[in-house]
């Protein structure tokens, strides 16, 4: 039996065969016109699965102009969430109170506010209670430390932490990062990923070079 099945909503099965319903493959529990999610990316929370989009990106509305894109093999811990562009109030006036939202005739009246997509690459670990602010791009292989507030783009294979999140360290030297990005193992067929798990887990780029 393959280790991973991209079609499952609840991919962890406990001893005894019960699915663990608090960890979900996002792609299979979210149907949102402004979200795009890749295979095997998961998130954990204790609410019913149908509330997942709301918990993960509470200000991303079906009519929002920005998009939230999450790649493959992304690991999102409990309490982490995305604040997207639609969360922003107009700041150019003398008040930030969104008066026009309260009248159906004028609710669309903030459509001229600037917006930016949020993009999460592949194989990224987002720690417990992390907050990702509007318009951020997180590079492949990055780690966002627990309770961070990410306000700027995160380079591939960086570890960032704190509020505002700053670079803690790079995970590998530049040449290894370049090779990992070139290898793009997340785009391999699943049987190739599974056949090379030991190489992926060992931390030595040389082991990946012989991957078949
Ligand atoms: C970032 C993390 C991965 C540790 O990485 P690491 O390289 O082993 O980091 P270290 O513990 O050696 O700490 C390195 C530095 O990062 C800082 N740091 C660690 N975690 C941090 C955090 N959450 N926020 C801010 N800074 C943090 C440390 O204080 C240390 O700073 P210093 O060099 O000034 O002393 C870990 O702290 C973390 O946040 N893991 C996420 C756990 C989680 O949320 N799990 C949820 C279930 S999946």
Question: What are the key terms here?
Answer:
212 residues; alpha/beta; UDP N-Acetylglucosamine Acyltransferase, domain 1; 2 domains; seven-stranded mixed sheet; four-stranded parallel sheet; 14 strands; binds coenzyme A
Textual characterization of the structure:
This is Acetyltransferase. Keywords: Acyltransferase, Repeat, Transferase. Belongs to the transferase hexapeptide repeat family. InterPro entries: Hexapep, Hexapep_transf_CS, Trans_hexapeptide_repeat, Trimer_LpxA-like_sf. GO terms for molecular function: acyltransferase activity. By secondary structure, the chain is α/β, with parallel strands linked by helices. The protein has 2 domains: 23-171, 3 Solenoid (UDP N-Acetylglucosamine Acyltransferase, domain 1), CATH 2.160.10; 184-212, no CATH class. Helix content is 17%, strand content 18%. The strands form 3 sheets. Strands 1-3-5-8-11-13-14 form a 7-stranded mixed sheet. The chain has a 4-stranded parallel sheet with strand order 2-4-7-10, with no helix packed on it. A 3-stranded parallel sheet has the order 6-9-12, with no helix packed on it. A hairpin with a 4-residue loop joins strand 13 (158-161) and strand 14 (166-170). The two termini are 20 Å apart. The relative contact order is 0.11. Coenzyme A (COA) binds at residues 77, 127-128, 143, 145-148, 159, 161-162, 168.
